[in-house]
Amino acid sequence: MSTVRLPDGRLHTPGAAGTWSVSATPATSRRAFAAAHVVPQVDSETVPGAPAVLDWEATLAFRRHLWSHGLGVAEAMDTAQRGMGLDWPAVQELVRRSAAEAAAVGGAICAGVGTDQLERPTSLEEVLAGYEEQLAVVEDAGAQPVLMASRHLAALAEGPEDYAKVYGRLLGQVSRPVVLHWLGSMFDPALEGYWGSRGRAAATDTFVELVTEHADKVDGVKVSLLDRAHEEELRRRLPAQVRVYTGDDFHYDQLVLGDGAHHSDALLGAFAAVTGPAAAALRCLDTGDVDGYRALMEPTVGLSRHLFATPTWFYKAGVSFLAWLGGHQPGYTMIGGLHSGRSAVHLATAYRMADDLGLFADPELAAGRMRSYLEVAGVAQ
After folding, report:
1. Contacts of 163 (CB under 8 A, 6+ apart)
2. How many C-alpha atoms does 95 have within 13 Å on its Cβ side?
3. What is the C-alpha to C-alpha distance for residues 357 and 351, in angstroms, rounded to an integer?
4. In a designed cystine with 141, which of 88, 99, 277, 296 is the match (CB 3.0 to 4.6 A)?
5. How many Cβ atoms are within 10 Å of 108's Cβ, its own excluded?
6. What are the pLDDT digits (tens) for 110-120?
7. 367 to each of 15, 133, 316, 322, 334, how far by Cα in Å?
């Protein structure tokens, strides 16, 4: 195979595709969802503020790829650019199409419920109505709702009691147990002080109280704070029947494995990038093969930490880039122009790390696309 000249001048020789086992049967010892990105049409205006025009075949094919490995799909969430280009009309169609695909293949699906269709709400009642509108769409489609953090609620809430009021009313009307999402400000600075407190300890108290009060309506909580110790403490404090779906893309290997008393399930953007080895690792836990799990999962964490490096909210650019290199979409563009959020240096490192892990089914295709991208970036091949 021909080599790739990286931006630092080093030559990278493509490796071989990974040889882990592939099965569409989900793991039984852990529940795991991969948060999937969306693919724009190549002839659309992928600029900030333009409507999202999606390549539906490529977008849905990527979800079928995730289901083929036994992972569930977390739809219309942060990875799919909620609040960063994916508008409400596109969200509705995405949820409906993906839920229909999930039903057709027998795949698990959950979908984000937020308030991003609102422009400038001035009251908690308007925020609640926004949540209710999206909740109805997700439930009607047959997907499990994930109640996402709301920028509007963060801006309008005056304290913990306002969060309890809004979420309490939502949880009182859901038709099935939902997932509550605590997204940290490293993913979205507008969510600073969520749950009514800037201090994490006070916010956690409010969160635990809310979940405990409505435990019969909460399947689990997705925690995206990149804080392993906090997640381990939260697992101990929540009611036993409530799952913790880790969103910690820095420490998921340890959190999913657990400490012997508690473990986390997973809802991760990283799993859309490290799909093969992650899914195979989870199946190792089904048979108690901890060494096999570690051998497969631990090497993926370095790539995940690279993809989620500061500024963290641009991680989805790396996920999309690796999907393009892997042949899952025709080009490397993102709605809202978000593909400009990572440098050629960053993406070249992501390519090298992914290739070293054997993530590309066709290493020569990935190398050829990497060379063409770097040529455009001014790195002669």
Report:
1. 153, 157, 194, 195, 196, 206, 210
2. 27
3. 10
4. 99
5. 18
6. 999 999 999 99
7. 10, 45, 21, 11, 21
The two structure tokens encoding residue 181 = 């999402």
Backbone angles phi, psi at 356, to 5 degrees: -60, -30
Q: Which two tokens stand for residue 62?
A: 């990527």
The pLDDT score that the predictor gives to residue 1 is 64
Cα 74 from Cα 254, distance rounded (Å):
21
3-state secondary structure of 381: coil
- Tell me the sheet residues that pair with 355: none
Two tokens, residue 354: 């992914």
pTM: 0.96
Q: In whole angstroms, what is the distance from residue 58 CA to residue 152 CA?
A: 32
CB 361 within 8 A of CB 16: no
Question: How high does pLDDT run on average in the chain?
Answer: 97
What whole-number distance in Å separates Cα of residue 308 and Cα of residue 353?
14
Mean pLDDT for the stretch of residues 345-369: 98
Report the pLDDT averaged over residues 230-241.
97
Q: Write the DSSP string, 115-146.
A: -TT-SS--SHHHHHHHHHHHHHHHHHHTPEEE
Q: Write out pLDDT tens, residues 174-189.
A: 999 999 999 999 999 9
Q: What is the pLDDT of residue 309?
A: 97
Q: What is the largest CA-CA distance in the chain?
A: 61
Residue 130: pLDDT over 90: yes
What is the β-pairing status of strands 243-246 and 72-75?
unpaired
Percent of the chain with pLDDT over 70: 100
Question: Could you tell me which residues are beta bridge partners of residue 266?
Answer: 32, 246
